[in-house]
Amino acid sequence: MWKGWPKSSAQPAQRLPNSKVQDTTTSKPPRKRSFRKPSICIMANQAIVKKAADRLELVEVGENSAWNVLWTDQPITVQQCLSMERFQMVNYIPGISEITRKDLLARNLTRMQKMFPEDYDFFPKTWWLPADLKELTLFSRQNRGSVYIVKPGSSSQGRGIFITKCLGELESLQQFVCQAYIARPLLIDGFKFDMRIYGLITTCDPLRLYLYNEGIARFATQKYEVPGNNNLHNVFMHLTNYSINKHSCEFVSGEDGSKRRISTINAWMQTQGFDVGLIWNTIDDAIIKTVIPASENLKRQYKMSFPRHPQGCFVLLGFDVLLDADLKPHILEVNRCPSLNIDSPMDEEVKEQLLVDIFTLLNLGRLDQHRVKDQERKRLFESNQLTIKKIAQKVANAPQKENDEDDSKIQADALEACLRAQVEWEEQNLGNFRIAYPNVNSEEKYSKFFSAADVNSSLFQETVASKARKAMVLKSLQVVEEEIAPAFEDFSLKEEEIKLNGSTVSRGRITALNSFEPSFINLAEERERVREMDKRDFLVQSFNLRAYIVEAMRQNGLLRQLEIEEPRKLEKSKFAVLPKIQPDFMPFEAGFHHF
Ligand code: ADP
To answer: What is the H or E stretch that residue 79 is in?
Structure first.
């Protein structure tokens, strides 16, 4: 028999702030939690991140603390994402390599190019070696005299890149990307340059992409000449990487040197009479179309890695864009960890402000650990009340209302409310960012690319084998539906739909054949089960239920003498696997003793 709350702990009603049943005899005002400054854990050798964090008074903590934001230059695993709390975020989106690795970017954009040749002509024609060697040979026969730039599949900073006109040099290459060389780039003072444009994805479901108005243009250090056999090997003429050109004796430092701000380039373009607004609209359009092929994969991986987070991750991307002599932008590559090294006052100014604007946009203040946990508890309380109501209705045989909210709806609503608030914040705290996607008419404009990217997503692309498997599964489902299910009409389950690789099939009236055979796994039920287990764990931890149970067992004489004398033994038992957490409030207070 239940004999009340353990004496050692105060009555929950007295500790529940704003509760209707709060004990009015105590004169203590409800405890107010002080606002804690958001914390950051920096796991990258980037001093500028620390500088920006200091400017915003973020507290720097170690990796074992309960940080709010983790800044790392390494990819993190799904397991690490799953272990993150709802008050934590990381600067890495699982699946982003679909566009940040040269080979995957080439594969994704080439596929889109085949479907939408005109819309995707901002990406230079690219071949994956050795697989596409035949196709490349055919192209070179039809386009005599073409120049190619060849890059190792997963390298960076210009390493291993060379320019050639001779396909014979490529025959023995393994895992290289070969690309048509943009031979007529836009020149400033006779020098080739490219632009590093910073992009920030704050959520992937729905996709939100911001682009930064400031950035850095990197210049080659030798005047450009049309590629010919006499200059093909001159990296200071054809490559614009800072990591290469800083070694040139003709590298010029300073604001008008070999590295300039994007705003300086804009001002120059204005003096030339170019339509700068139009150029940037075209660049934004190309960047959005570059992200689209990865979007479906990002969404899937996000759901898998952060099932309970409204916004568990974000990513800063560096888009390298080359303008040609006709002012047409070409996307050369996308960097997941754009360099945050500081080699000049200009670097420092641009990158520090970029980081400050990122942290502000992310609204780190909302990640207060206690506030997030309180919100989570309230949501669980609501959902629990609902379960109690449903059980009561079932027991009383009362008809269930059709519009009864279910738990998944409460959870979805809560996540949506968080996201809505965050989007509002982002729109009002853009700093020097502009919203690239979504924007006016953007859904209409890009929907065909999204649908094509979804169907053709590289990970989920249909192969002959997958089509055969799908046909087989559909056939077995049909057999179950037509031959087996009718025999078990009485035990039939609710009709429901199963999504199979894009197409929807009716699950129909599927039943277990007999109680010893495994029944079909219903994904919705399975998800529900995992969610309930999750909730149970959370409640057990949050409300220190272990202490109450032990006390109840003690009062009812269920503990062994040894356990009474040495309560520490209990701590070590299987029973004590959960950490002790003092409950801040007991939302169950009203309904708990009904059980
Ligand atoms: P990395 O990641 O190694 O820097 P990039 O693809 O960015 O590789 O290429 C390095 C440089 O080579 C670019 O900054 C640009 O100057 C030049 N480059 C790359 N691709 C092309 C191309 N298709 N046409 C002309 N120049 C190119």
So the answer is: helix 78-82
Separation between Cα atoms, residue 559 and residue 575, nearest integer Å: 13
Report the greatest alpha carbon distance in the chain.
94
Contact 222, 248 (CB under 8 A): yes
Distance CA 155, CA 161 (A): 9
| Distance (Å, whole) CA 551 – CA 54 | 47
Mutate to test the pocket of ligand 1, among 110, 149, 196, 336 (most ligand atoms within 8 A of CB): 149
Distance CA 488, CA 511 (A): 7
Tokens of 532: 């309930």
Of 549, 551, 537, 550, nearest to 579 by C-alpha is: 537
Tokens of residue 283, six digits:
């660049």
Q: Residue 266: what residue type?
A: N
Query: From the CB of 151, is ligand 1 less than 6 Å away?
Result: yes
| Average pLDDT of adjacent 10-residue blocks, the chain of 595 residues | 34 32 48 74 92 95 91 90 90 93 92 95 94 92 93 80 89 88 97 98 94 98 95 96 95 94 97 97 97 93 86 95 98 94 95 97 82 67 67 65 59 77 91 95 91 64 52 62 52 42 43 43 71 74 72 77 65 41 34 30
Are the C-beta atoms of residues 25 and 7 closer than 8 Å to each other?
A: no
What is residue 324's DSSP assignment? B
Is the alpha carbon torsion for 487, 492, 496, 502 positive or negative? negative
CA–CA distance, 337 with 155 (Å, rounded to integer): 13
126 CB within 6 A, ligand 1? no
Residue nearest to atom 8 of ligand 1 (CA): 158
Count Cβ atoms below 10 Å from residue 238 Cβ, excluding itself: 25
Q: What angle do CA 169, 174, 176 make, to 5 degrees?
A: 80
For the chain, what is the total number of helices (H) and then of strands (E)? 19, 18
Is the C-alpha dihedral spanning 417, 418, 422, 425 positive or negative?
positive
Q: Which residues pair with 89 in a beta bridge?
A: 69
Q: What is the dihedral of CA 288, 294, 300, 302, to 10 degrees?
A: -70
- Per the structure block, which two tokens stand in for 144? 């005599």
Whether ligand 1 lies within 6 angstroms of the CB of 146 is answered as: no
Q: Is 315 in the pocket of ligand 1 (CB under 6 A)?
A: no
Q: Using most ligand atoms within 8 A of CB, pick from 157, 165, 239, 331 the residue to mutate for ligand 1.
A: 239
> Which own/partner pairs from 466-469 qualify as long-range (CB within 8 Å, at least 24 positions apart)?
466/501
Q: Could you tell me how many residues make up the chain?
A: 595
Q: Token digits for 203?
A: 């959520």
CA–CA separation, 459 vs 461, rounded Å?
A: 6
Question: What is residue 34's predicted lDDT score, i.e. its pLDDT?
Answer: 60
Query: Ligand 1 within 6 A of 241 CB?
Result: yes
Q: Give how far Cα 429 sits from Cα of 361, 413, 433, 440, Å.
A: 6, 24, 9, 19
Interval between CA 349 and ligand 1 midpoint (Å): 25
